[in-house]
Amino acid sequence: MPSLELIVEATAVMLILMLISIRAGFVDPGGLFSSFIIGYSIYVFGGRLFFVPLLVFYVVAGLMTKLRYEEKRLKGVAEEKLGARGWRNVLANGCVAATIVYISSCTHSIPRPEFLAAYLGAVSTAYADTLATEIGLLYPREPRLITSMKPVPTGTPGGVSPYGTAAQLLSAFTIVPATALFLPKGYDAATFLNLLAIVLLSSFLGSTFDSLIGATVQAVYRCERCGKVTEKRTHCNAEAKHLKGFRYVDNNVVNFVATIFGATIAYALVHFGLIPLEIV
Ligand SMILES: [Zn+2]
């Protein structure tokens, strides 16, 4: 059971964070509600150790979605509503992570390293994918499809670019130092490097897996008003034409599956002793 102090702390921090989110426009009303539920439950069941990496993801991804927003909007590839994320996006990126924390807290009073790894694998996959997308959209040339390596229009699911790949890798370097600060055993070099290796591998493989399913099974549309290729069902306030992929596999479904993949990789790395991790 979470302590009263932790509940009070989580309530206070989450209320402040939600006020900041409204002001910064990180989420729309539905996104605000679902990020409160996800963030609050992770804080209460996982404490600071689990909450802080989520906080890094939430704030940095929110800022990067806003980065040169006007330029992305002119390219026709910006997130709608000035980049405010909706509840589907929040749940797709956060519900696997929240489930892992819940299972971890129900089964172990002190978190097992495999569970921390799996949690970070899920969060960092969603984080790496979001940064790769938002920073990759600023790449001045056309991205290449991850499967064929042929140039495709910016915004095509499964499109990869040097900017996106750099962002995908760099995301680990923000989330790992923040997590290491809150490890029960403290901050030492070996643990830090092992944690970095786990997060780098799982987030890179998880977000690459995201691009692979994006390129193969995700629904792709073309806007009949502006001609842009998009992963959104509607564009320029009109129904877009379906080009390929399964209609019910949208970006949120792909993100959700990719976070499970990232979590599994990280869990396996620690469980099978490929990368040792001691946290207490
Ligand atoms: Zn359009």
UniProtKB/TrEMBL annotation:
<dbReference type="Pfam" id="PF01940">
    <property type="entry name" value="DUF92"/>
</dbReference>
<feature type="transmembrane region" description="Helical">
    <location>
        <begin position="253"/>
        <end position="275"/>
    </location>
</feature>
<keyword id="KW-0472">Membrane</keyword>
<protein>
    <recommendedName>
        <fullName>DUF92 domain-containing protein</fullName>
    </recommendedName>
</protein>
<feature type="transmembrane region" description="Helical">
    <location>
        <begin position="32"/>
        <end position="65"/>
    </location>
</feature>
<keyword id="KW-1133">Transmembrane helix</keyword>
<keyword id="KW-0812">Transmembrane</keyword>
<comment type="similarity">
    <text>Belongs to the TMEM19 family.</text>
</comment>
<feature type="transmembrane region" description="Helical">
    <location>
        <begin position="189"/>
        <end position="209"/>
    </location>
</feature>
<feature type="transmembrane region" description="Helical">
    <location>
        <begin position="7"/>
        <end position="26"/>
    </location>
</feature>
<feature type="transmembrane region" description="Helical">
    <location>
        <begin position="116"/>
        <end position="139"/>
    </location>
</feature>
<feature type="transmembrane region" description="Helical">
    <location>
        <begin position="86"/>
        <end position="104"/>
    </location>
</feature>
<feature type="transmembrane region" description="Helical">
    <location>
        <begin position="160"/>
        <end position="183"/>
    </location>
</feature>
<dbReference type="InterPro" id="IPR002794">
    <property type="entry name" value="DUF92_TMEM19"/>
</dbReference>
<dbReference type="GO" id="GO:0016020">
    <property type="term" value="C:membrane"/>
</dbReference>
